[in-house]
Amino acid sequence: MKVIYPGSFDPVTNGHLDIIQRAAKNFDEVTVAILDNKSKSPLFTIEERIAMLKEATKSLENVNIDSFSGLLVDYVAKSNTNTVLRGLRAISDYENEMRNALANNSLNNDVETIFMVSKSEYTFLSSSVVKEIASFNGDVKNMVPEVVCKQLKEKYK
Ligand code: ADP
What are 85-135's pLDDT values in tens digits? Predict the structure, then answer.
């Protein structure tokens, strides 16, 4: 089975990476689909986010990196799967994820969303927490892959 793991990944964290690694073990193919949404004013360009994800997942043979803009259901319709994977950290994610999954399913009945529960050590971790810490010169090396650590230092130097 093939799954699409969509998100902003601005930037990818060890929490995302844990989901990607576990998905790679449990599914035949994982496509990480980075949302190119300029209205979210991301810190990293889509090219930078693609490059960081490629580097962080280079040892995983059944993982590929792609990007999309517009509606997720339209991207899914053009792919060869109907299954979307999302990570769930805490109950606070539940409401949003539920709304997105229901909205996507109502737009396209074939689209199914499945969830993987975050490891407990990553439940606090988000791209925004990482950016906040890095912007004040805090140490994020245990929170993100090495390539992201380097890029964050570049951005905030
Ligand atoms: P979005 O902006 O679409 O929420 P993110 O890049 O923040 O995109 O997250 C993409 C996916 O990864 C979401 O399903 C999110 O719940 C999940 N995720 C984010 N951080 C973690 C984490 N620390 N552990 C597990 N899953 C996570």
Answer: 999 998 889 999 999 999 999 999 999 999 999 999 999 999 999 999 999
CATH superfamily of 2-155: HUPs (3.40.50.620)
Query: Would you say the CB of residue 125 lies under 6 angstroms from ligand 1?
Result: yes
What's this model's pTM, rounded to 2 decimal places?
Answer: 0.95
Q: Look up residue 40 and give its DSSP letter.
A: G
Catalytic, out of 86, 89, 118, 131: 89
54 neighbors 65 (Cβ within 8 angstroms): yes
* Annotated domain spans of the chain: 2-155
Q: With contact defined as beta carbons under 8 Å apart, do 49 and 9 qualify?
A: yes
Structure tokens at 47: 């090219």
